[in-house]
């Protein structure tokens, strides 16, 4: 286990990385650091899932909202 914002792996060390239903739980600074780390460690494909157009207000445990504009 490891903090997504401080992924201690070498650059481009994984051909494929999956990040499934994690990002909505992260605060904004951790989200930015985590996305950067995921891009850095991925060589070929990065597959991510998030709740899409989740109704507002968000549940208290979801800190991020993802709509089409945000995903682009």
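^ Assign residues to that structure.
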């Amino acid at each position: 286990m490891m903090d997504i914002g401080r992924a201690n792996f070498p650059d481009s060390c994984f051909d494929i990385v999956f990040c499934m239903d994690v990002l909505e739980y992260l605060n904004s600074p951790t989200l930015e650091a985590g996305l950067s780390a995921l891009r850095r460690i991925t060589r070929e494909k990065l597959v991510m899932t998030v709740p899409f157009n989740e109704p507002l207000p968000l549940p208290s445990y979801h800190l991020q909202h993802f709509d089409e504009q945000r995903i682009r």
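The radius of gyration is 13 Å.
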